Amino acid sequence: TIYHTIRPFRLMSEEGSDVSFPADSHRITVVNFFFSRCPSFCKEMNKHIEELNFKFSKNRLLQFYSITVDPEYDTAPILKEYAAGFKYKTPQWKLLTGGQSEIFRIAREDFLVDALRDTIAEVNFIHSPMIMLVDPQQRIRGYYNSSNKEEVDKLTDEIKLLITEELRNVKDR
After folding, report:
1. Distances, alpha carbon 7 to alpha carbons 105, 137, 172, in Å
2. Distance in angstroms (rounded) separating the CA atoms of residues 17 and 154
3. What pLDDT score was predicted for residue 171?
């Protein structure tokens, strides 16, 4: 199988620190795009990320990136406030912001999902409800619709599979 590979990028976390992707070439990454003022599915999507974050909180092979598509509003302090609304937010889950054109480019060219400003609604963005699974070689291993419980369950299973694969690879080294 030929997988699409994510190019390196650098954004800022809700703590105000720089975050580089790939931060560690031996980590599995779960990525989604959202914005804090989202009137539709973002809160539910980030609830799924929160649940995954909690479920795998003891596993150092995993990291979670939620990237805002509204960086003009979603500054680091706004994202920090937004993150405070989640009960199970660990350091392995980062909410990221940066330049809008850079984020839109990362979404479209690297993660192959939609991210653009809605020209009709005042405070709205068109973006994907997908959660992406990226392996330690920065390859996209799957897309999972956050609006579908079965898809999120499948993501959980595939994370476990990738962890097993990585542990086998470490043994072989």
Report:
1. 11, 11, 26
2. 32
3. 58
pTM of the entire structure? Answer: 0.93
Contact 31, 146 (CB under 8 A): no
Tokens 């975050």 -> residue: 19
Alpha-carbon gap, residue 113 to 106, rounded angstroms: 9
**Burial of 86 (C-beta count, 10 Å sphere; 0-12/13-18/19+):** middle
Which of 132, 140, 137 shows the shortest CA–CA distance to 166?
137
Interacting residues of 95 by C-beta distance below 8 A, sequence separation 6+:
13, 14, 66, 67, 68, 79, 80, 82, 83
pLDDT tens across 152-169, in order? 999 999 999 999 998 887
Residue type, 14: E
Residues 52-80: tens digit of each pLDDT:
999 999 999 999 999 999 999 999 999 99
Distance, CA of 6 to CA of 135 (rounded, Å): 10
How would you list the strands of the sheet with 9-13, edge to edge?
Answer: 18-21, 9-13, 93-97, 62-68, 28-34, 130-134, 140-145
Q: How far apart are the first and last CA of the chain?
A: 22
- Spatial neighbors of 88 by CB under 8 A, at least 6 apart, are 50, 51, 53, 54, 57
